[in-house]
């Protein structure tokens, strides 16, 4: 109890003694951890979007204008008995036109310009495994009556690639900030060890245990890491509140919404990484500057 | 109590060893002076006994324990059985005499209650009764060294190491410190003192080990400097 009190008061004194450096350290840690949290959220988001959209995407097999009933029913039978196919829906010209009208209800000029019967009829095919588009394409592209085969997955892949590279950039920025943060942690600990060199020398002399000598310094770094992660969490919280649910609302609704649970889930991640990485850095620094 | 067996210590980049094949034994309760000119290697002995440095060759045995091969995590505990006093006192300037001694207890896990009982007692022993709450800068050199001795002795160590404890003190004050060390020695504590203060060595008439260029050149039971 006695020693715990001593260690804790040393931590507070230590953080306060060098307050500008402490603030710089906490801010860099916070920014770095916020980036980490954001890229973590993006990762979760991309995964949930993949689950959501890959479940819905279909391969569209558009038919020629002059397709015969025979060709159509042959193709229908072939698709229905195909082991790669999960589900087949036929979409007639009229249905296509209806769908077109609802999709572009905002643009009546466009809707009026397209007459029923101008849009091609199609088979909407859901694959058991969305990755197997190529096989379907090879199999049916030369069938009588088939105009083109379109894979909606390609379109989604492009979106996911963009999200993926944004995520990578956030991770890269997080690691660069992390390097700066670690150097600052190391430096802060060095300064702290220097300003307490007399106490440390006496402690070694009278046989204080190594952990007792090092604990205040390591805990100083851990506390800074935790404060940084709290600030980073508040940043993510505000970002969700004002950006995603605020000004970027339309975009968010287009994608799958980001849940508060996911944002909350980032806190233990950031706190854990922040505390652990700071502690290890401090400990390594001490091994060099505080030879016991 | 203390055994040095063929100990050789060469510091990195040094041209010749600080200690060269030194063997010496010290019994429990002895009072031993290590004397010799500056750079003769006598301070290295203190560092070896504290495990601040390790020998290149030979064995250092303190209190039945081989210090040379001691695991690093065992060193702190080992040091608790050794008290240490230096020429520059090494007191914490922002703490009073009482707090300086209590600090040594607290950092090895003793409670405040233990400190309240033991610290006034040991400050009284070293002759600082009534000056417990003075800061080091409010004390004379001799009084500061008494605080350092109190801190070294508060744990009742088996061994007291003193590295030129009178180096910063005038002759009269030096003799007072020596009386104090002598008193501590009479409680059964082994005292090892490194010095080049001939006056003191001549007055005390204790065992003298003279070192020159890293070798023992004299070991006399009731010796003088010179």
TrEMBL record, chain A:
Protein origin, superkingdom: Bacteria
Transmembrane segments: 21-44, 170-194, 215-243, 263-286
PANTHER family: CELL DIVISION PROTEIN FTSX
Keyword tags: Cell cycle, Cell division, Cell membrane, Membrane, Transmembrane, Transmembrane helix
Pfam family, one: FtsX
FtsX extracellular domain segment(s): 57-149
Quaternary data: Forms a membrane-associated complex with FtsE.
Protein name as annotated: Cell division protein FtsX
One Gene Ontology term, aspect cellular component: plasma membrane
TrEMBL record, chain B:
Major location (coarse): membrane
PROSITE patterns the UniProt entry points to: ABC_TRANSPORTER_1 (PS00211), ABC_TRANSPORTER_2 (PS50893)
GO terms under biological process: cell division
GO MF annotations, alphabetized: ATP binding; ATP hydrolysis activity; transmembrane transporter activity
InterPro entries, sorted: AAA+_ATPase, ABC_transporter-like_ATP-bd, ABC_transporter-like_CS, ABC_transpr_LolD-like, Cell_div_FtsE, P-loop_NTPase
tRNA-binding as UniProt keyword: no
Subcellular location(s) of the protein: Cell membrane
Top-level division of the source organism's lineage: Bacteria
Pfam families noted in UniProt: ABC_tran
Function: Part of the ABC transporter FtsEX involved in cellular division. Has ATPase activity.
UniProt protein name: Cell division ATP-binding protein FtsE
Organism phylogeny: Bacteria, Bacillati, Actinomycetota, Actinomycetes, Micromonosporales
């Amino acid at each position: 109890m006695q020693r715990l009190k001593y260690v804790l008061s040393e931590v507070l004194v230590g953080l306060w003694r060098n307050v500008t450096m402490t603030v710089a350290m906490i801010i860099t840690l916070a920014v770095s951890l916020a980036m980490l949290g954001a890229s973590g959220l993006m990762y979760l988001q991309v995964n949930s979007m993949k689950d959501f959209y890959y479940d819905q995407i279909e391969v569209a097999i558009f038919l020629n204008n002059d397709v015969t009933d025979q060709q159509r029913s042959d193709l229908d039978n072939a698709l229905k008995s195909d082991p790669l196919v999960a589900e087949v829906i036929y979409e007639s010209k009229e249905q296509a036109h209806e769908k077109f009208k609802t999709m572009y209800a905002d643009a009546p000029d466009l809707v009026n310009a397209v007459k029923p019967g101008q849009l091609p009829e199609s088979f909407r095919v859901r694959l058991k495994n969305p990755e197997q588009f190529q096989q379907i394409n090879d199999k049916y592209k030369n069938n009588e009556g088939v105009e083109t085969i379109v894979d909606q997955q390609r379109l989604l892949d492009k979106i996911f690639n963009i999200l993926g590279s944004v995520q990578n950039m956030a991770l890269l920025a997080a690691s660069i900030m992390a390097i700066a943060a670690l150097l600052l942690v190391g430096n802060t600990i060095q300064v702290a060890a220097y300003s307490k060199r007399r106490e440390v020398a006496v402690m070694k002399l009278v046989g204080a245990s190594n952990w007792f000598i090092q604990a205040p310094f390591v805990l100083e770094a851990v506390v800074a890491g935790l404060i940084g992660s709290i600030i980073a969490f508040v940043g993510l919280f505000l970002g969700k509140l004002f950006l995603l649910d605020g000004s970027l609302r339309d975009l968010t609704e287009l994608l799958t919404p980001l849940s508060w649970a996911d944002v909350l889930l980032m806190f233990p991640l950031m706190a854990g990484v922040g505390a652990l990485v700071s502690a290890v850095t401090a400990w390594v620094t001490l091994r060099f500057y505080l030879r016991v | 109590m203390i055994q040095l067996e063929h100990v050789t210590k060469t510091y990195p980049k040094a041209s010749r060893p600080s200690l060269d094949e030194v063997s010496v034994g010290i019994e429990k309760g002895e009072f031993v002076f290590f004397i010799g000119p500056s750079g003769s290697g006598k301070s290295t002995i203190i560092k070896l006994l504290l495990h601040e440095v390790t020998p290149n060759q030979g064995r250092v045995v303190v209190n039945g324990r081989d210090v040379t091969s001691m695991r690093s995590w065992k060193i702190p505990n080992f040091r608790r059985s050794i008290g240490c006093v230096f020429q520059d006192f090494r007191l914490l300037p922002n703490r009073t005499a009482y707090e300086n001694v209590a600090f040594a207890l607290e950092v090895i896990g003793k409670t405040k209650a233990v400190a309240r009982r033991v610290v006034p007692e040991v400050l009284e022993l070293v002759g600082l009764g009534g000056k417990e709450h003075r800061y080091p800068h409010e004390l004379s050199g001799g009084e500061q060294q008494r605080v350092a001795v109190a801190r070294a002795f508060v744990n009742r160590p088996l061994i007291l190491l003193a590295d030129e404890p009178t180096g910063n003190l005038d002759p009269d004050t030096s003799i007072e410190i020596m009386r104090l060390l002598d008193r501590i020695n009479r409680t059964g504590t082994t005292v090892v003192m490194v010095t080049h203060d001939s006056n003191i060595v001549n007055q005390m008439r204790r065992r003298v080990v003279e070192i020159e260029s890293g070798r023992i050149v004299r070991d006399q039971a009731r010796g003088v400097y010179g």
